[in-house]
Design goal:
The complex is a heterodimer. Chain A contains two helices and no strands. The N and C termini of chain A lie far apart (50 Å). Chain B is an all-alpha fold. Chain B contains 14 helices and two strands. In chain B, strands 1-2 form a two-stranded antiparallel ribbon. The chains are: A mainly alpha, B mainly alpha. Chains A and B meet through helix 1 and helix 2 of A and helix 8 and helix 10 of B.
Chain lengths: 36, 409
């Protein structure tokens, strides 16, 4: 169970590395505002 | 009085105060999530319930939940108005603290449970209907289920169901009832047609933080003593809350492209919900897995609810219903006699039967809560009317129900 706990935390850390960047998110917001 | 432990008593009284704080904290958590025209009414739901159930519990609620058993289903009225509940301990429930301290600790659980449901019918329920519903629900749903699980002679307790701090009693009953309430009341006007956005996310994060703080009393206080078991419950509570927040934020980040602040707050609450029944039976590694499951399952549950266009306004079923069921089953999986010698091992340690017992408790709580809540709401609708009128809903509940407003600017 300890190994599973370490693995699940590692999965989260990897997800943060591959998740969309905040810069892209900001660009999307600007696009949405421009469209509105 | 020689059996009374000053340490245990002090911890239980402090825990009672911590759990008391959770109900106004819930008011802020929910208050931030509604539109500004409904914030006072939403906070009032929690504050009013604190007052109402504090009196109901003293007069008959405690006796129905913990009084002398009648057929495994409910307590008798022998302890109504706290007759016989005094400064001496009750050895059945808390042998080292005054019975009054145990009673008041349990009171705070009875208070917050119906308050959780209010998030489902936010922004559209008549205040009078809410008052009647709360009183009937506390008496006909919470008190009996609390007796089943925690009362001496209760049938689920006798069966061996584990619920350390209220996963079944508090979260499954309130979560399922919230879903039923959302279905019976119907959607808010404009749902799906216009944006219905939280008016103050900072208020919600503050509320979630105060809930987390109070939850230490909820779970570690349920050890009913200043003990190693309380310390274990404290640690796993914090761990699962953190893991729930991290997981929910991550899932929402991957799903919607940004790490949601409100998602982190909701995830922390989901983790706290799921660890509640398990907090006296599992270790920190299991708490990480329970928090992981809570952040994932509750997030998915809410997406499904929205896809089905059920207007559970503040996601009570997704967080408390789904999180409560996961926590109850996870207790049957991860429970360890090495953590709590008074409890059996769970399925992860070879005792598959415990998982079956937990499933029976879940099914019983789900079925009973759903049927009773539906019946209570239908009766109230017949005599009082559940929803405000169209004009009142558009105007907002602060003005239409309370003749007040939260903000002057």
């Amino acid at each position: 169970m300890d190994l599973l706990a370490f693995a699940s935390f590692a999965v989260l850390v990897v997800a943060w590395l591959v998740a969309p960047t905040q810069e892209r998110a900001a660009a999307e917001v600007l696009e949405e505002r421009a469209a509105a | 009085m020689e059996n009374i432990s000053s340490g245990d008593t002090a911890w239980l009284l402090v825990s009672s105060a911590l759990v008391m704080l959770m109900t106004p904290a819930l008011g802020f958590f929910y208050g931030g999530l509604v539109r500004r025209k409904n914030v006072l009414a939403t906070i009032m739901h929690s504050f009013f319930i604190l007052c109402l159930i504090s009196v109901q519990w003293v007069l008959w609620g405690y006796s129905l939940a913990f009084g002398p058993d009648i057929g495994g289903l409910i307590g008798g009225l022998d302890w109504a108005a706290l007759r016989g509940v005094g400064q001496a301990p009750n050895p059945d429930y808390a042998p080292t603290v005054p019975a009054l301290a145990f009673m008041t600790f349990q009171m705070m659980f009875a208070v917050i449970t119906p308050a959780l449901i209010t998030g489902a019918f936010a922004e559209r329920k008549r205040f009078k209907a809410f008052v009647v519903f709360t009183l009937l629900w506390a008496t006909l749903v919470y008190d009996p289920v609390a007796h089943w699980v925690w009362g001496t002679g209760g049938w689920l307790r006798t069966l061996g169901a584990l619920d350390f701090a209220g996963g079944t009693v508090v979260h499954i009953t309130s979560g399922v009832s919230a879903l039923v309430a959302a279905l019976v009341l119907g959607r808010r006007r404009g749902y799906g047609e216009e944006p219905i956005e939280p008016h103050d996310a900072t208020m919600t994060v503050l509320g979630a933080s105060l809930l987390w703080f109070g939850w230490f009393g909820f779970n570690a206080g349920s050890a009913i003593g200043a003990s190693g078991l309380a310390a274990n419950a404290f640690v796993v509570t914090n761990t699962a809350a953190a893991m729930g927040a991290l997981t929910w934020m991550t899932v929402s980040w991957l799903h919607k492209g940004a790490p949601s602040v409100l998602g982190a707050a909701a995830g922390a609450v989901a983790g706290l919900v799921a660890i509640t029944p398990a907090s006296g039976y599992v270790d920190a590694s299991a708490a990480i897995l329970i928090g992981l499951g809570a952040g994932t399952f509750c997030y998915v549950g809410i997406q499904l609810t929205k896809r089905l266009r059920v207007d559970d306004a503040l996601d009570v079923f997704g967080v408390h219903g789904v999180g409560g069921v996961w926590g109850a089953l996870a207790t049957g999986i991860f429970a360890s006699a090495a953590v709590n010698a008074a409890a059996p091992d769970g399925a992860a340690f070879g005792n598959l039967q415990q998982l079956g017992i937990q499933a029976v408790a879940v099914l019983a709580a789900v079925a009973y809560s759903a049927v009773m809540t539906f019946a209570i709401l239908k009766v109230i609708d017949l005599f009082v009317g559940l929803r405000v009128g169209e004009h009142e809903e558009v105007l907002g509940l602060d003005a239409s129900q309370h003749r007040e407003s939260a903000y002057q600017v």
